[in-house]
Amino acid sequence: MAKNSNLNYYKDEKKIDSSKDHSNSKCDESKGSFEEIPLKDYLKAKGKKLKIQVKEKSKTIKKKSKKLSKQIKEQAKTTAKRIKELSIETKQIIQKKHKEWKEKERMHKQSQMENEKTSVSNIEKSKTSRDSPRFCPYCGHEVTQGGKFCPNCGNSY
User: What is the per-residue pLDDT across 126-144, written as a single tens digit (0 to 9) for each?
Assistant: First the structure.
């Protein structure tokens, strides 16, 4: 490759003395040799060639990036759509579970209330049976709560 030193000439990547006049050199294509050119011209030509290559690569990259961008946008739309569907499904499941929980809670409270009513009625029955006077079934005389025989007639009750 060319080295940057006092505008030397290059031929087949070999350094040529710049003091000689190489302006009349021709390219012999049959032998595969190249025309001798000044370094400045060589670098200009190489720069132009590189510019063209960069432009081509740039176009290719731009096309690929547009294609990828389009794919990403499509994937984003698909993903957003799926997220929305999942969100709706989740909301429906939560609502269903909420209704189930409310129903279970209602049933539990109803069961508790029935248990409390039963408990209260049992308490009231036991209270009334303890507080009210008892009478002998044979003579009708009032008897004591803990006794087994009537103090009036002597029969067991």
Answer: 765 555 668 888 888 888 8
Q: CA distances (Å), 157 to each of 72, 129, 131, 146, 148, in order?
A: 95, 15, 18, 11, 6
Separation CA 69–CA 63 (nearest Å): 10
Please state whether the predicted TM-score (pTM) of the whole model is above 0.85.
no
> Domain coordinates of the chain in residue numbers?
9-119
Q: Which two tokens stand for residue 139?
A: 């003579």
148 alpha carbon, distance to own chain's centre: 78
Distance, in Å, from the CA atom of 143 to the CA atom of 105, rounded to the nearest integer, reads 49
Triad 55, 59, 60: Cα angle to 5°: 120
